[in-house]
Specification:
With about 150 residues, the protein is of the alpha+beta class. It has helices at about 20, 45-55, 85-100, 125-135, 135-140; strands at about 70-75, 105-110, 115-120, 145-150. Strands 2-3-1-4 form a four-stranded antiparallel sheet. The longest helix is centred in the middle third of the chain and has 19 residues, at about 85-100.
Length: about 150
Amino acid sequence: MDDNDEHTPAPPPSPPAESTLHYTVPPRPDGWPNWLGRRPMRPANRDKIREALEAGLPDGPLTVPGPFLCYLTIDDLDRTTDQRKLIRLRGRIHAAARVAAEGCHTTYHATDSALPIGIQGPDAQDRINQLRNALARLITKHGWTIRYEPR
């Protein structure tokens, strides 16, 4: 036996049989392939969907007129010169905004002097009012100016 026999690589495994390389999709009773186990929609169901679309949306929170995106902008943040204090204040504002939003889509864009916070939803104005009430002591203490912009 030669010392080189121990270091020779093993031959690669043989390729699988050709029948296992091709994937087949099971056919539906109508002859079309059953890609995801879905069945074609019945004409009666299509008619129901068409009627519902023609009738329009039912009355609900999405059809009630009102502001769906409201902003609360806090100005004059540049009055605070201590960066550590400013970071803590922005953190408190951000935490209050997240509590007021409670899972609604929010926008939060910070600049050096202003901080606009937007809340989106059918009750956006109520949530902005809740945010303003939560931040009322900070706003008064630091002399910040606030603006409302419903859209």
